[in-house]
Amino acid sequence: MGSGQSGLGRLSASDVGAREFNLPDRLNYKVSRRELKQAYRALGITPHDKLTRDLEHEFWVDSYNSIRNMQEVYDINPDEMHEMRFRPGNKYGTYASMNFDGSFTIQQSIRSDTYDGVQKTYEFDLKSGFHPQGTTVQDIMAHEYAHAIEAQLIRRIVPQEVHNMFGGATYVSDTNRIFAWADHTVANEILNTARANLGLTQAGFASAVKSLTGYGYETMQSSSSADSGHHETFAEALSAYARLGKNSGALATEVARLTKKMLKETRPQRATKSSSTSTKKPRRIVKKGGS
Ligand SMILES: [Zn+2]
After folding, report:
1. pLDDT at residue 236, as a whole number
2. How many distinct structural domains can be found in the chain?
3. 106 C-alpha to center of ligand 1: Å?
4. Would the pTM of this model clear 0.70, i.e. be above it?
5. How far is the CA of 286 from the centre of ligand 1 (A)?
6. Least C-beta-crowded within 10 Å: which of 23, 43, 96, 251?
7. CA 224 / ligand 1 centre spacing (Å)
8. Quick check: is 3 in a domain?
9. Distance from the CA of 22 to the center of ligand 1, in angstroms?
10. How far is the CA of 170 from the centre of ligand 1 (A)?
11. How many Å lie between the centroid of ligand 1 and the Cα of residue 153?
């Protein structure tokens, strides 16, 4: 898995004390659990105590790095995202999922398996064309973060409804946003635009999706119409592009370009000039004498 580090080595309390506790950029496996939790908070994600205890440390470190990379590639300020957190789920047959309420559900298949076991499953999926070539088990949470990006775009684009009640009181609801999320309107819009921009016929598009991601292709095939069911292709394209850049292929590259454009164009206006430091990135952990 890349770094050449073996095991889940953790620092002793005194090692942690010796560090300047400020900033996670790309973490290594030796980071302590305490630092890891802080690092996730800097990404705008609250870790779940049970999960951080139960899941292998390496999973969390790799997932941190891949989510951090997504924020970097798509120029996302964690402050601009909906509040996010992890929660345990029970579904088998899937690694994790992302919910409109901001929770990443870590499924039983990951929680009950070793990270090596999850990696073997991922590699099997990869060989069968289910995931984009060149992605790794480390991209599982990048894929989920891509769904979080769609959820955020929906929040920015679809207004909340304001209801008037008797007596003049008002309340707002997210119903329209939840429908938009259920219909994957943003992912569908982006994929359909990418198809048009690339000049693909329906058949050419289906073939491009299939060669990028079997998961996306199957999801599209099970959808009721030709221009919907693109949310898994969207997530796979964004995570593949974040890892591989243009080597992810023309479709993923165009999907990434359109998503970046939409994120930029819908970015909330800052109220004051002083807060124009909206490019603020999560801080770095500087290790004394470290690499
Ligand atoms: Zn997905």
Report:
1. 98
2. 2
3. 12
4. yes
5. 34
6. 23
7. 18
8. no
9. 32
10. 35
11. 16
* 37 and 136 assigned to the same domain: yes
Rounded to the nearest angstrom, the distance between the alpha carbon of 147 and the centre of ligand 1 is: 7
Residue 132 Cα to ligand 1 midpoint, Å, equals 13
- Does residue 193 sit in the same domain as residue 149? no
Question: Do the domain assignments include residue 280?
Answer: no
The reply to whether 53 falls in a domain is: yes
Instruction: Tell me, in angstroms, the distance from the centre of ligand 1 to residue 246's CA.
Output: 21
Domain enclosing residue 235, as ranges: 156-265
Roughly what angle, to the nearest 10 degrees, separates helices 231-244 and 214-221? 160
Query: Which tens digit of pLDDT belongs to each residue from 47-57?
Result: 887 777 778 99
Euclidean distance between CA atoms 3 and 62, whole angstroms: 10
Residue 145 has pLDDT above 90, yes or no: yes
Residues 6+ apart with CB under 8 A from 82: 102, 148, 151, 152, 155
* 140 CA to centre of ligand 1 in angstroms: 9
204 and 133 together in one domain: no
Phi, psi for residue 164 in degrees, rounded to 5: -95, 135
Same domain assignment for residues 185 and 231: yes
* Least confident span in 27-36, 71-80, 281-290: 281-290
Tell me the two tokens of residue 281.
């990135």
| Of the candidates 45, 147, 60, 36, the residue with the CA atom closest to the CA atom of residue 110 | 60
Residue pLDDT, tens place only, 169-226: 888 999 999 999 999 999 999 999 999 999 999 999 999 999 999 999 999 999 989 8
